[in-house]
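Data availability (excerpt). The following record was deposited with the supplementary files.
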Amino acid sequence: MPERLPGPPQRILIVSDAWKPQVNGVVRTLETVANELRAGGDTVEVVGPDRFRSIAMPGYPEIRLAIAPKRRLAKIIDDFGPCAIHVSTEGPLGWAARSLCLRLGFGFTTSFHTMFPEYLHARTGIPRSWSWAVMRSFHAAGQGVFVATRSLGRTLEGHGFRNLVAWSRGVDLERFKPGGADPYGDLPRPIFLYAGRVAVEKNIAAFLELDLPGTKVVVGDGPQRAALEKQFPEAVFTGYRDNGVLAASYAHADVFVFPSRTDTFGLVLLEALATGTPVAAYPVTGPIDVIADVPVGALDEDLRAACLRALGADRAACRRHAETFSWAACAARFRAALVPVR
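Predicted structure:
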């Protein structure tokens, strides 16, 4: 069992290829956890691509990849003098941080957020076994791999990962709650909502092609938006929403539809439930962990059937279930699993 980090105050460095101004679950998780740790007395620094020369990720212009970051990252690490290092992603910054930690003899932890082997296979045909071997090698160098759900942990164990650490998620219950001005106006009911990145790996077309009553609404933006708008002109695409409008979009929807089969958690599930909106999804990693057997939605390989069943869920029960997920507990678990650099 690796030695654990002493209590605060400590200096904690998080290295992540996913960071602001990106808008996604990884960024929201890291930002919220960092703020929770700071409130507890620790000094936390998050190093993202914004500090380096970078290029756009092919097909995802909003995602920047750091170019040759190792030398600058080494200086940042030296200047900060961390007590613990967490490497959050397997991109250029993650690999540079891993290499530097190994060279310096530093202990470190990692986290598994994204099913890259599945995405790469779907987009390029690269054999999954090749990508899984690379990912396994990346994470094996650390002293713990943080995973968001039990089902993800079982999947990774099946691919040979070891030293897995359970690290669930939370939701901002003040920001995401029932109420707010109805953003849907006179759109025909019921409202079936998807919110999140509009990208091929989110499987949004599987939702939009369903024969459902009422209106399908897509909140968010991304590289697939234009193609989906053209393919599904009857759906309503709002673009990115925030500053209370996002929460109201959840709260006034009748069902939140989560068509992804490859997310490792899905913070949007908790955000929707916190506003009292039930969830319809496939029975896969993420939904099966968040929903489980609690009657706050429906999971089914027939997504249309799940959408229609979810209409009958108890909205008050949805809110109560979301209240069991705390960011304070998430941050405490993260901190408890960190290891000292020496």
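Summary of structural features: The domain at 191-322 is CATH 3.40.50.2000 (Rossmann fold).
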